[in-house]
């Protein structure tokens, strides 16, 4: 486990224990620290199109649109003929997240989903495997006869992104392919809301089984919402799923408004904290918000400038560490905010995946906390059952930095890790 910061080596690496000469590529639940993600395995195709092209195929602009396989093939063929395709990327919001996690942590993660049993050169499955970190364990994928999904991102001259989704066999994941022991040993289980709209498809039941397994074994559940349109269409089901299973909720400001009815991110986070334990909201040029709970007895005041907006002095206790609400004797809501790193990139090549990158940083810190608890159980860091290793403020810094790296490149997945981030003086408090 590579830790997200400059730490004292003695705290994290049990050097007295011999290291295996040939480390296993497969996840070993009793020995490894890892996260598990369930996803609709899909390849992203990026293309430039005109408004007339969207109208020709009756594709609503700016939305995520499910289309049948033959229509998607016609769209793809015309894009190839017009030389409009710029890139193929391994996609999927959770696939992106766990890939980025493995790059940041330089450690293992597990992907659950489907994969073509026979992978042909140039096929969607081929592109997916080629663009996924070797640290991601794919041994638990379900083999299918057809293709994995294909998502076509069509960018119009005004910069608006419109999505065409060809599911193919990506929703055929059966509940029998959910490995309960793997989930039970994970530091976190992460999933998106997308499978909830796959009504009548096996993946919906597979997702519910995985959520139930995680809850039964007290594994933190993290959910990413997807798109505003998805939330609006499935709001009641999403709210119930969050209430029943989810500990950490990740979304952008549009999805937050669709879920809670509040346009203001702080008010949306305050409302969401009534049904979950921690909320990450990415708000574009406004930066990002991380909100959650800590115990009144462990609250830690910030030395950063105190901010007021729709909530007065909202970041006052952002140096506190997150906890599950049920673990707090006196739960206290904590809010933290950070502006875009370096004011944001001078030129944003692609916003796709920025939120997934921020979430991968949060997951990295949660997994680091789990690892440190295993190797240093008597550390003062674990006097109470904290959800993450760092404070709300430090988590914001790390998530913000990773999001920036996604924005300055033309792909939703990191190709390499980040330079070690600097620790502020407030972190020294937790080293005592």
Can you tell me about this structure?
There is one protein chain. The chain has 432 residues and is of the alpha/beta class. The chain has a domain of 186 residues. It is 31% helix and 19% strand. The chain has 13 helices and 16 strands. The protein has a 9-stranded mixed β-sheet with strand order 7-5-1-11-12-13-14-15-16, sandwiched between helices. The C terminus is likely disordered.
Mind describing the biggest β-sheet? 9 strands, mixed
Number of strands: 16
The average pLDDT value, as a whole number, equals: 89
Radius of gyration: 21 Å
Helix content: 25-40%
Helix-strand makeup class: alpha/beta
One letter per element, helices H and strands E, the order comes to: EEHEHEHEEHEEEEHEHEHHEHHEEEHHH
Q: Give the strand order, joined by hyphens, for the main sheet.
A: 7-5-1-11-12-13-14-15-16
Q: How many alpha or pi helices?
A: 13
- Give the strand content: 15-25%
Give the overall silhouette: globular
Which spans of ≥5 residues are poorly predicted at pLDDT below 50?
Answer: 421-432
CA-CA gap between termini: 22 Å
Pfam families: PfkB
Binding site for GMP: 39-44, 92-96, 197
Cofactor: Mg(2+)
Function: Catalyzes the phosphorylation of guanosine and inosine to GMP and IMP, respectively.
């Amino acid at each position: 486990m590579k830790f997200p910061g400059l730490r004292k080596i003695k705290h994290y690496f049990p050097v007295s224990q011999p290291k295996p000469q040939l480390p296993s590529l497969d996840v070993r639940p009793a020995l490894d620290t890892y996260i598990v993600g369930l996803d609709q395995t899909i390849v992203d195709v990026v293309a430039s199109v005109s408004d007339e092209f969207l109208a020709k195929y009756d594709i609503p602009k700016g939305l995520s649109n499910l289309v049948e396989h033959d229509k998607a093939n016609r769209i793809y063929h015309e894009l190839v003929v017009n030389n409009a395709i710029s890139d193929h990327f391994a996609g999927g919001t959770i696939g992106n997240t766990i890939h980025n996690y493995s790059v940041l942590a330089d450690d293992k993660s597990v992907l659950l989903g489907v994969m073509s049993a026979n992978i042909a050169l140039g096929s969607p499955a081929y592109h997916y495997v080629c663009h996924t970190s070797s640290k991601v364990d794919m041994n638990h994928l379900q083999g299918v006869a057809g293709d994995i999904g294909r998502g076509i991102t069509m960018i119009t001259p005004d910069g608006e992104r419109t999505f065409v989704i060809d599911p193919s066999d990506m929703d055929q994941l059966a509940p029998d392919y959910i490995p309960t022991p793997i989930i039970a040993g994970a530091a976190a289980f992460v999933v998106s809301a997308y499978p909830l709209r796959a009504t009548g498809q096996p993946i919906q039941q597979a997702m519910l089984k995985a959520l139930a397994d995680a809850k039964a074994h007290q594994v933190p559940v993290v959910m990413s919402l997807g798109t505003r349109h998805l939330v609006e269409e499935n709001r009641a089901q999403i709210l119930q799923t969050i209430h029943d299973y989810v500990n950490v909720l990740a979304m952008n400001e549009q999805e937050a408004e669709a879920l809670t009815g509040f346009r203001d991110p702080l008010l949306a986070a305050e409302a969401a904290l009534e049904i979950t334990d921690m909320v990450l909201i990415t708000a574009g040029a406004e930066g990002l918000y991380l909100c959650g709970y800590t115990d009144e007895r462990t609250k830690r005041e910030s030395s950063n400038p105190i901010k007021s907006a729709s909530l007065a002095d909202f970041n006052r206790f952002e140096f506190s560490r997150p906890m599950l609400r049920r673990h707090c004797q006196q739960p206290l809501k904590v809010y933290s905010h950070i502006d875009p790193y370096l004011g944001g990139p001078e030129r944003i090549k692609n916003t796709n995946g920025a939120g997934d990158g921020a979430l991968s940083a949060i997951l990295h810190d949660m997994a680091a906390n789990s690892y440190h608890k295993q190797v240093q159980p008597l550390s003062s860091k674990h006097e109470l059952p904290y959800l993450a290793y760092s404070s709300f403020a430090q988590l914001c810094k790390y998530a913000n930095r990773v999001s920036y790296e996604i924005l300055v490149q033309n792909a939703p997945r990191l190709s390499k890790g980040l330079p070690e981030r600097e620790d502020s003086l407030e972190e020294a408090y937790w080293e005592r």
